[in-house]
Hints:
Distance between the termini: 54 Å
Largest sheet: 6 strands, parallel
Number of helices: 9
Keywords: Transferase
GO molecular function, one term: Z-farnesyl diphosphate synthase activity
Amino acid sequence: MFSSIKSGIKSLLYPLYEVRLARSLDLAKTPHHVGVILDGNRRWAKANPSIDGDTSSRRGHKAGADKIIELLDWCEETNVKVVTLWLLSNDNLKRSPEELKALIEIIGSTVDELGRRGRWEIRPVGSLESLPEELQDRLAAVSTKSRGIKGVVVNVAIGYGGRREIVDAVKSLITEAGKAGKSPAEIANEISVEELSQYLYTAGQPDPELVIRTSGEQRLGGFLLWQSAHSEFYFCEAYWPDFRKVDFLRALRSYSLRERRLGA
């Protein structure tokens, strides 16, 4: 009885707190690029069984996918320009065939829905050649259709791994230089941070100033290894499907209050 009353009071107060928090933010200090590790879908499903007792990972992944639209709404409201969403890692491709098939279907439907909204430019990033051909085609179609839309740029990291990205960047740099007839010594001489950055999946975009990870895990797990060298990190206890606007605003507030020395 007492817990239900307490829960009811919280549900009434949170909208007021959310408005107060939003008003306190200095949008001039909003990060231009926010990376989000959407973690905790499976644990959420186990902790929140449906009425019929469903605790399947599929249900968790679907709940997590439904949260993405809300996040992008919040990003628009707070002037975030680029969002990178880690939807599927290279390691995830090793999961059981049943779970992987369900996850691929959900990701495909989610990206299709983002494209149908017509509000954001969708850019798939990752080792896309490792994905099922049907998903590759769907990603390519959404990317082409949404290109040039004046809204938040949404990088959907699928089949993504930070180490693999750096390896791919080095391979691409060497291949291009080889085509230009350069010797190994010349290639090694010309490699620089700036040069290699041009071959990353996110080439041409600002590096993320803020990286958010849900579910209480305090590690990057290989997310944007190169790009996050100077990022601020925010770890949230909530599982991704439970991530609220209040949690997002808290992350932005935390970022705005930090003194970014950038190595100085």
